[in-house]
Specification:
Radius of gyration: 13 Å
Structural class: mainly beta
Strand content: over 45%
């Protein structure tokens, strides 16, 4: 079955950086679009970025220019480099697998999440 395990979350001051990682297993990683989502306390889960198997990342406006999504298809790994972090980036971050190669489906499979806290 699909397994997605996030790591790399933590607490950081505003302006700092974190690198999130997601270890994927149970499926052919290189065949699927992968993404990152986040959910702040009391708010809905929102899309952050996604990346197709051999393409460039696509980003939400709120993180564009600060976050970089990448994937290593040989290692079944997804990453999110987060720079210039802001307090409003505080959230639980989720790794997700789309149900297809190009993220045309609105259905995702989820990891358990990793907490990111940014203090001012």
């Amino acid at each position: 079955q699909v397994q997605l395990v996030e790591s790399g979350g933590g607490s950081v001051q505003a302006g700092g950086s974190l690198r999130l990682s997601c270890a994927a297993s149970g499926f052919t990683f290189s065949a699927y679009c992968m993404g990152w989502f986040r959910q702040a306390p009391g708010k809905e889960r929102t899309w952050v970025a996604h990346i197709i198997p051999y393409g460039a990342g696509i980003y939400a406006d709120s993180v564009k220019g600060r976050f970089t999504i990448s994937r290593d298809n040989a290692k079944n790994a997804l990453h999110l480099q987060m720079n210039s972090l802001k307090p409003e980036d505080t959230a639980m971050y989720y790794c997700a697998r789309a149900r297809d190669r190009y993220c045309t489906s609105s259905t995702w499979d989820w990891g358990q999440g990793t907490q990111v806290t940014v203090s001012s």
